[in-house]
Amino acid sequence: MKMSTIARRSAPFAVGLAGILAITGCSAQSTSEETDSTETLTVWFPGSSQPEIDLVTNTLVPEFESETGIDVEVTFVDWGDLSPKLNAAFAAGTGPDVFGHGPAAAADLVANDRVLDLDDDVASWPEDDQDDLASALTGGQVDGKQYLIPLSVSGWLVAYREDLLDAAGIDPSSITTWGDLKDAAELLTERDGDRITRAGLLLGTAAQQRTITFNGLISGAGGQLMNDDGSEPEFDSSEGVQALTYFADLYNGDDAVATNLGEDYVNSAAAQQPLVTGSAAMTLLTSQAVSQITIADPDLKVGVLPALQFTEPATFGGAGAGLFINADSEAKDAAWEFITFMSSPDISTDYAEGTGTIPIRASAVDSDYVKDSPALGVFINQMPYFVPNPNVPQWTQIRDILDSYLEQALAGQATPEDALKRASDEVSALVG
């Protein structure tokens, strides 16, 4: 195995493919019809997490090489450099056989014929495997076809301090709706005059996190961000107004329960998490953040609520970063063999444990990794209610437009109705 690492800057939410791939390649086709001409496979992983680098290069890839006899050249590319380096490699005809990226990149990669349609290959898996992976696979599909095989699942649920809810006489099992959550947050909020000293509830309001939060809220109200074929925005709706009004009211008015609008608490170090410092009683968090908190402070009892609803349970989540096969690869069979290996029960769980993420298989709920973390089990059990961002062309641009108008509504600079109307007009002009 050969390995190199490009750059070391962290960008946890940089899953878009800005200025994507004007260079087109060969048309995507099933790997099952290809014959590898080489036993060397080039693989690019996104990110610069040292634990992930160590796990992949020191354990997982050597095991794959030992089992298959295929040599793997691994490169880790920082998220911020990934798209430019891929574009340059595609232009030069030196792109990797397999490369990792986020689901937000999928539709544009497909539109530019850069990646293979993997439907036939997934269909070749045993039915039990397909069922076990079903919730994760959905997030890697474009127009109903599979292009990305996730390495992990990302999910956002409300975590809470058990001691603070106990002290307030709140039974977590009684919180099933967003309305219940707001009522509990009001009881948990502490003030010094007009200043909130302990937030009852924090939802993600940093850049791009606003759209993530809003997606969960509008989905819980029965709405969605885009129509099914991605040709029109649908967030300017009664469901969207209900969701954004709720979101904005948490931070504004006499009944506000949240503070520090725009602060990126989600990516804070475990010791600085609002739940740990006591500056918040409940926060919307990823599974990784919850895991880091419990590892850093095992004595702090943190619970996780199931997906909440206005009319139906929903929360933001779905496929995290995953693996694509380059449409120009000359090692397609080996590429699929590598993806199958990474998706296998033991390896996929080892990968999730090593990266602190949600495993892609529902059966991982019975693994020691999940059993040792009750909170993680909640995330896995809620996977059927995870709603991903739309896998549509130009999604990153659509997201950024919506995000900017959500920011205005949260800051009280625009009404929810006006913010969503203006965002919808701008997105319609973009995709029309």
TrEMBL record:
<protein>
    <submittedName>
        <fullName>ABC transporter substrate-binding protein</fullName>
    </submittedName>
</protein>
<dbReference type="InterPro" id="IPR006059">
    <property type="entry name" value="SBP"/>
</dbReference>
<feature type="signal peptide">
    <location>
        <begin position="1"/>
        <end position="28"/>
    </location>
</feature>
<dbReference type="InterPro" id="IPR050490">
    <property type="entry name" value="Bact_solute-bd_prot1"/>
</dbReference>
<dbReference type="Pfam" id="PF01547">
    <property type="entry name" value="SBP_bac_1"/>
</dbReference>
<keyword id="KW-0732">Signal</keyword>
